[in-house]
Amino acid sequence: MKFSESWLREWVNPSVTRDELSHQITMAGLEVDAVDGVAAEFSGVIVGEVVECGQHPDADKLRVTKINVGEDELIDIVCGAPNCRQGLRVAVAMVGAVLPGDFKIKKAKLRGQPSFGMLCSYGELGIDIESDGIIELPLDAPIGQSVREYLDLDDAIIDVDLTANRADCLGMAGLAREVGVLNRQAVTEPTWQAVSATIDTRVVIDNQAPESCPRYLGRVVKNVDVAAETPLWMQEKLRRSGIRSIDPIVDITNYVLIEFGQPMHAFDLAMLEGDITIRLGNGEEKLTLLDGNEITVPADTLVIADQQKALALAGVFGGEASGVTSATKDIMLECAFFAPLAIMGKSRRLGLHTDSSHRFERGVDPQLQHKVIDRATRLVLDICGGEAGPVVESKSDQHLPQPVNITLRRSKLDRVLGHHIGDNDVTEILERLGFKVEVGEGCWNVTTATYRFDMAIEEDLIEEVARIYGYNNIPNTAPVAALSMPDHKESDISLKRVRAMLVARGFQEAVTYSFVDPKLQELVHPGEAAMILPNPISVEMSAMRLSTFTGLLTAVGYNQSRQQNRVRLFETGLRFVPDEAAESQVRQQAMLGAVISGNQNDEHWSMESKTVDFFDLKGDLEAIIGLTVSDDEFTFKSASHPALHPGQCAEILRNDRVIGVIGAVHPSLEKPFGLNGKTIVFELELDALLHANLPQAQTVSKFPANRRDIAILVDESVSAGNVLNLIRKVGENQLVGLNLFDVYQGKGVEPGKKSLAIALTLQDNTRTLEEKEIAEMVDKVVSELKSEFNALLRE
């Protein structure tokens, strides 16, 4: 927000310099971005009056003038401005004056006519105002006075970058209140004579959305002169606040906007058809805005309407059809409080951003509207004349924000600040902020002000006390911390080890959004309910993810479309599953997901180019499982998943509990995600993975180990994992090694069968096994396999 230093000092004038004032405001949390002069440096320019203005005898575009510069002194000046005329008060650069750019005014002759100075435009004085000619000053401007002094051009424009929570400072009243608190000075608000109704014309307000518009005020002012000129003092204050002067009615609404931070709007009364209605749009009606753009009003957007049409986007932008024009005679002033949530996001969705929406989105004082509409009415009557009707109000007390009661404890204040501030100082600070304070035993019971929307909890009050007391006044104290050994279970596996393992195997860590496209997620998890965000960044990011699959597959498609043919990504993060049994109605689980696509290895002359398959990613997963020293607790079981290819999908189990899934992405998902070629993914619960069994040290046997290889024929449907588990069970303690080293189907093996070649390593810690015992153990294994799986020993 930009504001004029001199305007601020009309409200509160502390005995500090401009630089000190800027530093104060910044240290209070209202960061000053820039301090700029309102005009460039110049000297020797005074107020003059055009006494005579005639045509130059030798130049069509020049005029010869006589200028009264005071003390009955008339000087001749040749001027080329088209708006120069007799009786005008102008800015005169006298001989010897120095204008911006070190331009010095000297005596001169223009086409034979002497000229002892120059009549100046705004641009020639370095003032940012568009004009076609010389400056036209008010007719009561004192002749001979310095223009710099008359227009207060030694003033400065201070640009403050406010955080979203400090909407109370989006007006001179709030800024002055803040400066007054910092300097312990009273604030002098402007005064005016209250406006009493002189006519009985009034509008009827039908408020159909009280939760979005708890308070709406309207007032009719008839017989206004829109052609009246906005006073120079108002134009300058608006200009120095970054607002261009348009016409007196619009200027007045903008002026009170900057003065109190309360947006207003003026309607042309003749354009209204029937009662004023506050309602939501129907999703079909068209509205041409004041900037000339036509929009379709969304169904969830609040509008101000009459009985026939929408007049304005509530709190955002007025409509062109009902706006004030040069033909306007009667107006209706609107002053309302709109709930921030009713305005938030609406202007951005429509590509609009206005001073009004900026303030309503952040919140305005719900008790300010009566004062502001009276202030605006008084300014209209003083500048444009007219007759005012009564103020008509529609109010819903139950929807108006109420002050918050907060208890500030002395113990909490001292603990958070690490510094003791006296009781009287704390009380004074809170009261100067406009809060009602009751001092209790070791605490303060505080009722916040209606203009401080950001006050909700005890920490907010602590921040205010520290801010006003001055952060620099709180001494720097080094923290004292005791070192202690952290509690750490050796059986816990750190997530860092899992990440390092995956990176070592060629993966890169991805970080995708927790909110995803609901349409893509529905393809991955058809029929599963997901949390939908009420105010998403975009429609494509409106659902909380049910797994990491959606984000990872999107990332694969994004990389492949950019010529990254070999992709290996992993991600750790939460998934959000709706669960009525959970306290927050959602179950949040930490998950590990990974995806591979493209070739098994980077292109190399010594390696065969081969596309990844199910077992490549399964091998990476088994390497992670190996960190648990509990391989036998993990099993893979054939399963189905709507996002994965039938026959190439398996559940991941630990101690017979399903903790995840692995498989090839279903071909039907390749086009929606932009995938090129086979893609393999897995996901499992981190909590079920990050726990290991501690290895138990055992004596190394001094007796020899014996290896025996067997080849068995089983049905193709028999899982090799189940075969190995049975052998482990039969072999008990003497089986110290087990390895499946070949799976064969083809010539010599009948269709529907497969051959499993398995190596058994047998050893005893107390003695050397005899050949007979070894043979008996192998026979026992073969017998159990035949009984369980109808397995035959291959000849």
Largest sheet, described in full? 7 strands, mixed
Helix content: 10-25%
* Overall number of strands: 38
Distance between the termini: 90 Å
Category by helix and strand content: alpha+beta
> Rg from C-alpha positions?
41 Å
In the sheet with the most strands, the strands line up as 26-29-30-34-33-32-31
Instruction: Provide mean pLDDT, rounded.
Output: 92
Q: Runs with pLDDT <50, length 5+?
A: none
Helices and strands in order:
Elements lengths: L1 E3 H7 L6 H10 L3 E7 L5 E13 L7 E6 L5 E6 L9 E11 L3 E2 L3 E3 L2 E3 L1 E3 L27 H4 L5 E6 L10 H12 L21 E3 L7 E8 L9 H8 L8 H13 L3 E5 L7 E5 L5 E3 L5 E3 L5 E4 L4 E4 L3 E2 L12 E7 L2 H4 L2 H4 L5 H8 L6 H16 L2 E9 L9 E5 H8 L5 H10 L3 E5 L2 E5 L10 H12 L25 H10 L3 E2 L5 E2 L1 H7 L18 E2 L4 H12 L6 E12 L7 E12 L16 H12 L8 E5 L5 E11 L2 E9 L4 H4 L5 E7 H4 L16 E10 L4 H12 L3 E10 L8 E10 L8 H19 L2 E2 L2
Parallel strand pairs: 12-15, 26-29
Antiparallel strand pairs: 1-11, 2-11, 3-4, 3-6, 4-5, 6-7, 6-10, 8-9, 13-21, 13-22, 14-21, 15-18, 16-17, 18-19, 19-20, 23-25, 24-25, 27-28, 29-30, 30-34, 31-32, 32-33, 33-34, 35-37, 35-38, 36-37
Helix pairs in contact: 1-4, 5-6, 6-10, 12-13, 20-21
Summary of the model, kept short:
The chain has 21 helices and 38 strands. With 795 residues, it is of the alpha+beta class.
Task: Tell me about this structure.
With 795 residues, the chain is an alpha+beta fold. 25% of the residues lie in helices and 28% in strands. It contains 21 helices and 38 strands. It has a seven-stranded mixed beta sheet, sandwiched between helices. Strands 3, 4, 5, 6, 7 and 10 form a six-stranded antiparallel beta sheet that branches. The chain has a five-stranded mixed beta sheet with strand order 12-15-18-19-20, with no helix packed on it. Helix 1 crosses helix 4, helix 5 crosses helix 6 and helix 6 runs antiparallel to helix 10. The chain is elongated. The chain starts with a strand and ends with a strand. The mean pLDDT is 92.
